[in-house]
Design a protein that fits this description.
The complex is a heterodimer.
Chain A lengths: L1 H10 L6 H21 L4 H12 L2 H11 L6 H21 L6 H20 L2 H6 L1 H18 L1 E3 L2 E7 L2 E4 H6 L1 H11 L5 H21 L3 H20 L7 H26 L4 H11 L9 H10 L11 H4 L8 H9 L1 H24 L3 H25 L17 H19 L19
Antiparallel strand pairs in A: 1-2, 2-3
Helix pairs in contact in A: 1-2, 1-4, 2-3, 5-6, 5-18, 6-20, 8-10, 8-11, 10-12, 10-19, 11-12, 12-13, 12-19, 17-18, 18-19, 19-20
Chain B lengths: L1 H21 L2 E2 H11 L11 H10 L3 E8 L2 E8 L1 H28 L1
Antiparallel strand pairs in B: 1-3, 2-3
Classes of the chains: A mainly alpha, B alpha+beta.
C-alpha cells in the first residue's frame, strides 16, 4: 500500500497537495481491505487485492498532478495591468503638483513587483502567524505615534526600504491578517467571538483616537465586523447565528452611534467635524467648509465626454487625489469617470468571486476581507467625490496618488493571487496551528 | 480518439453526479455503489475515480467536505447547484447524440 501511495505522490509535483491526496487514497484502500477481509481474505492478500483494484499509480498520479498544480489568476493579473496603465496615465495627466514621470512609473512598477512577491508567499503561512503579525502591526502603530516621521506636518509615516509609508496604509494589511486570527478561533463559541471582537476593536479604536483617522478606523472596523459576521454565517462558531449577529451589530454599531450623538449634542466633537457634517446636511446655510458643495457643483456640471471647463483644482484650493474621481469626470467627462469606476468594480467583483468560490475556508475569508475593505473604500471615496458623503479622507484604490496606498493595494491584490494559486491544492480546512502555543 | 475519451469521461462524470444527487458519498462508497448496481460489470480501476472527482470539484460541480464516520474522518462529496444544473441539462445532449447516431445508421441501411 505504501509503495502504491508513494508512487502516486511522486507524480504530483506540488508537494503541498501530496498529503491530502495520499490521505484520501489511503482511506479508500483501507476501506477496501476491510471489505476484502470481511469476504474471507487474509490480511496480506486483502491488501494486495485492494491495491490491485486501484490500478496504475503512475497514471493516477499524472492525472492528479494535472489538477493539483499552482494556478496563476491570469484574469486578475491582466485586469491589474489595464488598471495600472490607466491609473498611471491619469495621474500623470491630472496632477498639478510637479510630478516626475519616472517617480510615478517606479511607484507602479514597484507595486507590481510587490504584488508578485505576495503571489509567491503562501497565504496559510500568514494565517499561521496571524496573531504575531497582528501584534507587530499594532506595535508599528504605537511606534509611529511615538517616533514616526511627518510629511507636511502630519505624523504617521515610517520609512520602509527607503520608501515613506503611511501607517494608515500599512494597517490595511491588518484585514487579511485578522481573517487568519478569526480562523484560529474556528470551532469555538461565544468566547471566540469576544476574543475576535477584541482583536478588531483595539486597532480600530487606536487608529480613530491616536493616528487619528476617524473614517479609516471606521472602515477598518466595519470590514472586520463584516468578516466576523461572515464567519458566523459560515458556521465557524458554535453559536446561534441570527441572535449573535443581531447582538454583535447592535452593540458594535449602536454604542459608537450613541456616543457620537452625545458628543455632538454636548459639543465635544471637534469643530471641523461639526462643520463638515452641517455643511453636508444643510448646504447653502453654512459657510466655511465648502468642499462638498464644490464637488456637488463639479459633478453637476460634468459633460458626458470632455472637459466641463471648471477649474476644480483651483476651486478646491489645491490638488488632492482623494477627489480624483471628480477631477477625472470634470476633466475628461463623466463617461471616463464611469469607465475608471467600472474597472474598480470589476476588480472588486473578481476578488469577491474568486474568494467565495474558494474551497479553502481560510483563503475565502482572507479574500473576502481584502475585497470588502477595497469595496468600502471605493464606495466611500466616490460618495465623497460626488458630494454625497461628508468630506473625509479616503482614497480611490490604485488611482489616488500616494505611494503608500498604491503599494499596499498591490500587496493586497498579491494576497488574492496567492489564494487563487493554491485553489486546487489546499482542502477545505488547513491546519494553521503553531507547534508552540505558549505565546498566544 | 479525443472525442471518444471525452465522451467516456463525460459519461463517468454524469454517473458520479447522478450518484451524488441521491446522497453525499465518499470515494469508496461511490465505487462500491457503482459495482453493486452494475452487478460487478463496472470495471473502472478505483484509482481513476479520484482524478475525476478532484477535477469536477475544481469545476465546482461537486464540493468536498470532511466528516467523521466510524471514528474515521473521511472526505465526502456533495453535489453543488452547478453540478445539479449539469446533471439535468446533459441528458438532452446525450439524447441528441443518440438520435443523430441512429439516423446515421438508418441512412446507411
Amino acid at each position: 500500500m505504501e509503495k502504491y501511495l508513494s508512487a502516486v505522490a511522486e507524480q504530483i509535483r506540488c508537494k503541498i497537495a501530496r498529503p491530502y491526496v495520499e490521505k484520501e487514497l489511503r482511506d479508500h484502500i483501507e476501506d477496501q481491505v476491510e471489505y476484502n477481509i470481511s469476504k474471507g481474505m487474509e490480511h496480506e492478500e486483502a491488501v494486495k487485492a485492494a491495491v490491485r483494484e486501484m490500478g496504475d499509480p503512475v497514471e493516477t498520479g499524472i492525472s492528479l498532478d494535472r489538477i493539483h498544480r499552482p494556478k496563476p489568476a491570469w484574469g486578475v493579473i491582466a485586469l491589474m495591468a489595464v488598471i495600472t496603465i490607466a491609473a498611471m496615465s491619469l495621474q500623470l495627466s491630472l496632477a498639478s503638483t510637479p510630478y516626475i514621470l519616472r517617480g510615478v512609473l517606479i511607484q507602479y512598477l514597484f507595486g507590481f513587483v510587490i504584488m508578485l512577491i505576495c503571489y509567491f508567499v503562501d497565504y496559510t503561512v500568514v494565517a499561521r502567524y496571524a496573531k504575531h503579525i497582528a501584534v507587530l502591526l499594532m506595535f508599528m502603530c504605537v511606534y509611529c505615534r511615538l517616533f514616526g516621521l511627518s510629511i507636511n506636518g502630519i505624523v504617521g509615516w515610517i520609512r520602509v526600504f527607503g520608501v515613506m509609508i503611511s501607517i494608515k496604509s500599512i494597517m490595511l494589511l491588518y484585514i487579511p491578517v485578522f481573517a487568519g486570527v478569526l480562523y484560529k478561533y474556528r470551532n469555538t463559541g461565544i468566547g471566540g467571538i469576544i476574543k475576535s471582537v477584541i482583536w478588531m476593536v483595539i486597532p480600530s479604536l487606536y487608529i480613530i483616537r491616536y493616528v487619528p483617522a476617524l473614517s479609516f478606523g471606521v472602515i477598518m472596523a466595519v470590514s472586520m465586523l463584516s468578516l466576523i459576521t461572515f464567519a458566523i454565517i459560515k458556521g465557524w462558531f458554535t453559536v446561534p447565528k441570527r441572535t449573535t449577529i443581531v447582538a454583535l451589530w447592535g452593540v458594535i454599531v449602536g454604542i459608537p452611534i450613541v456616543v457620537a450623538a452625545i458628543r455632538l449634542w454636548s459639543g465635544i466633537t471637534p469643530a471641523y467635524i461639526q462643520a463638515r457634517l452641517l455643511y453636508w446636511l444643510f448646504p447653502g446655510q453654512y459657510i466655511g467648509y465648502n468642499n462638498t458643495t464644490i464637488l456637488r457643483e463639479a459633478i453637476r456640471s460634468t459633460r458626458a465626454i470632455g472637459s466641463s471647463e471648471m477649474n476644480l483644482v483651483e476651486k478646491l484650493s489645491g490638488y488632492n487625489s482623494d477627489y480624483i474621481f471628480a477631477y477625472i469626470s470634470s476633466t475628461y467627462g463623466l463617461l471616463v469617470g464611469i469607465l475608471v469606476l467600472s474597472l474598480l468594480v470589476f476588480l472588486v467583483v473578481s476578488i469577491l468571486g474568486i474568494s467565495l468560490k474558494q474551497k479553502n475556508q481560510l483563503g475565502m475569508m482572507m479574500g473576502v476581507g481584502v475585497g470588502t475593505v477595497l469595496m468600502i473604500n471605493t464606495v466611500l471615496n466616490i460618495l465623497v467625490a460626488i458630494g454625497l458623503f461628508p468630506d473625509t479622507s479616503t482614497f480611490l484604490p490604485l488611482f489616488s496618488s500616494g505611494s503608500s496606498n498604491i503599494l499596499i493595494t498591490y500587496a493586497l491584490i498579491g494576497i488574492i493571487l496567492s489564494i487563487y494559486k493554491y485553489k486546487s491544492i489546499y482542502p477545505k480546512f488547513v491546519d494553521v496551528s503553531l507547534p508552540n502555543k505558549a505565546l498566544f | 480518439m479525443d472525442n471518444e475519451k471525452s465522451l467516456a469521461s463525460g459519461g463517468m462524470t454524469m454517473l458520479i453526479l447522478k450518484l451524488l444527487s441521491e446522497k453525499d458519498m465518499h470515494g469508496y462508497e461511490m465505487i462500491d455503489t457503482l459495482r453493486k448496481r452494475s452487478q460487478n460489470v463496472f470495471e473502472h480501476k478505483a484509482g481513476t475515480l479520484y482524478p475525476l472527482l478532484h477535477s469536477i470539484e475544481d469545476e465546482n460541480l461537486v464540493k468536498g467536505y470532511e466528516q467523521e464516520t466510524q471514528s474515521k474522518i473521511r472526505k465526502y462529496y456533495k453535489l453543488t447547484r452547478q453540478g445539479k444544473k449539469k446533471l439535468y441539462k446533459k441528458p438532452d445532449r446525450f439524447n441528441k447524440l443518440q438520435k443523430t447516431m441512429c439516423e446515421f445508421i438508418m441512412w446507411g441501411l
